[in-house]
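Journal club prep — side note

Before the paper discussion, L.F. wants everyone to see what a predicted structure for a comparable chain looks like in token form. Sequence:
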Amino acid sequence: MKNIIYIMLLGFVVSSCGSDFLVEEPNLTQANEIVLTNFDGLNQATGGTYTYLDHTSWYGSAYTIIADLRADNAKSSPISSGRYQLDYNWNYNAANTAGFWSIGYYTIAKANNVLNAISESYDPSKEPTVTQDMVDHLQAEALFMRALAYFDLVRLYGQPYTAAPESLGVPRVLVTEIAEPARNTVSEIYQQIVADLTNSLDKFDAEFYTNHRSVTDPKAVATEDAARALLARVYLYMGDYVNAAAYASQIIAKSSDYSLYTVDNYTTVWGTDAASEVIFEVYGSTGNANNPYWENIGNMYDPDGYGDVCATNNLLALFEAGDVRANMFKTKAGYDSYRWPSKYPGKANLREDNIPIIRLSEMYLIRAEASLKGVTTTGVTALDDYNMIRTNRGLDAATSVNMNDLFDERRRELCFEGHLVFDYARLGKALDRDDEDNKITGAEDIPFPSYRWALPIPISEMEANENMVQNPEY
């Protein structure tokens, strides 16, 4: 597809990331052929694969926000500046869904450039100080970032794997070339994601960031743990509960590296660097090349910022008395019946937030769901994992748990972190939203199955590629 190819070609050169994320900026003036034929250039180009994570269209704002806004954790705020109305009302067409499509393929381009250079042209034997372990680590990072981008693309533009694995997903592009590739199936994209992540696992070097690239936040770069945790999530979305539980268990077992937040620290850890539950996150800084500035997720949720999005009463009613998570909401004078989430308090200001992408609590919830689906994990039950979350959030241990309980627990625990609409999709649950403020126009209920669970392919792609097929009904 020509539009994707143009994106990929641009990705060959544009490989920078913010100076607060990497100590040394990549040199943007060097030709790709020079940059990617020496280790320093490859190292900088690999660091550049993270550039767009903080973008407005990805985790910096929109991708995370709309997952709750399209479902029933969030709603349009009474002080809204008008942003996110299309998402709130599921009012999509081919002219308004291009944002993340481009960002996802920019990232894939950057990752492909590194991977292709290592496999085809880079010769480490010409650099006596470079070891194979160093090169392998760069491959692992690029594989992780390509997998993450494809996972988020296929979840947005394709039907859920658990419902329609052979339906059309997104184009799988592994090499930059002039072509017009057709869309691969959802199943084929998931196979690529799993292959990339599993291939990365034995390539990570735990000391790489200490010895070869200085980073401000060690949890804002790919690691073996991040790859294993992402695999747990991917397998959950595939309905492969055996593998989901296995990979989640591997992270849970690392008690010396990760620990659940407790009642005593839950309200204070958000926005801090390398918090104990975080496995992988976006490091928020206005020095990041694609920092959203005033459209940052924290400012979008803060009633003293733009405050476009607030919590639904439906979500607030799920919190039991004594649940510390119920304290994670802000109020605003004159709007007594509304609450705004405070998981993104900002650091130096509301434009800078660390945005968790994978946390330890999600691993417990994944394993609990797997147990309810019949997977046996030695020494632990679904109720054990469910209660690990509850008791660390100030609640009494439950005596039983079912899938509805667990769904509600995911809503409480992972709200405003980019999960809910995708949970509805992968579980095949119809969406029945309460129109609490009479602001929903035409999308109060979304049945399942429905064409609407896959967003339309952007019109720019449709016009550029004769092999591109639009999602039905758009």
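L.F.'s comment for the group: The chain has 18 helices and eight strands. Keep this in mind when we get to the figures.
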